[in-house]
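Shipment paperwork, digital attachment
Item: protein structure file
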Amino acid sequence: MRTLLLALLSLAFAACQRPPASAVIDQFGTYQSLDGNMSLDISRAGQSRVAFQLKTTGKGAHIEFSDIVGSDAKPWCFYWDVKNRLWVYGSDTGYFAVIFCGAQGFEKADATTEPLRSECPQVVEDFLPSVLKRRPMVIHTP
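Attachment content:
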């Protein structure tokens, strides 16, 4: 019985992946934040929509947030940064947001505006289409 319990626990922990810090998440599945306090579940909703749900995993009240990114036929990605913020991008809907756990629960902020835009991790920046990529500031002098 103890062996069976240990095997089941091992499977449960293996199913909840912690992605490498240098890679975007672009597959369906369950992923932990870098600090292990949040869980991201990415699934298919309906026939072709990418849905996700965030949950806190620590002790106490469980806070949840869910949303739809867009179609699974177009590029999409998620990324946990070192501040445990979740960067989310969906190309067909223009979804580009940063989600983090604040004092009032999960908060969603537009990633196209400053100061967040300048904080975009390079691995996410590399995933974005050219129209969303940061451009170096050019100063014209007379």
